[in-house]
Amino acid sequence: MIPTPAPINTAFVEYLNDYHRRIHSTLECSPMQKRLSVESVCQKVPEVADIESLFRLTRRCRVYNDQTIRLHKKAFEVPGCLPGERVTIYYMPWDLSRVYYGVDLQLAKPVDLTANAHRFENANFANTKETNDDS
């Protein structure tokens, strides 16, 4: 017969409770009393001005002809970068609202798809076809 985990877990918990309360010869007290007698084993972490930078991921992206990059299926504008070059970007995987690029960590602007959808309504961007009336 194969034992189920429940009785094994119960026996282990009982053993740990007994172990932590039993007086040990080297400590001359129980491990639980020793732990509670110490002030704290945790050390204070010094205040860090920019802790966010410690968690940023880096990635190399190609700059497209319209001066954008793609990150997780989202487009970001990176003005000042030449199309075709590779640029290093810095980002938090859980927060794509702030994506930085370049050595001086410039903020990449998310592409506004709504504004780009209306670009053909402007006369400057309209496709103008010359009609030949050579009939």
Structural features, described:
- By secondary structure, this protein is of the alpha+beta class.
- Among the domains are: 13-37, no CATH class; 55-112.
- The protein contains three helices and six strands.
- The protein has helices at 5-21, 31-37, 113-117; strands at residues 57-62, 68-71, 74-77, 86-92, 95-101, 106-110.
- It has a six-stranded antiparallel sheet, with no helix packed on it.
- A hairpin with a 2-residue loop joins strand 2 and strand 3.
- The longest helix is centred in the first third of the chain and has 17 residues, at 5-21.
Write out key terms for the chains shown.
single chain; 135 residues; 3 helices; 6 strands; elongated
Biggest sheet statistics: 6 strands, antiparallel
**Portion in strands:** 15-25%
- Order of strands across the biggest sheet? 1-4-5-6-3-2
Run of helices and strands: HHEEEEEEH
Principal-axis shape: elongated
- Please report the total strand number as a whole number: 6
**Spatial gap, N to C terminus:** 97 Å
Radius of gyration: 32 Å
Q: What's the helix count?
A: 3
| SS class | alpha+beta
Which residues form runs of ≥5 with pLDDT under 50? none
Helix share bin: 10-25%
Whole-number mean pLDDT = 82
Brief overview:
The chain is of the alpha+beta class and 135 residues long. The chain is 21% helix and 24% strand.
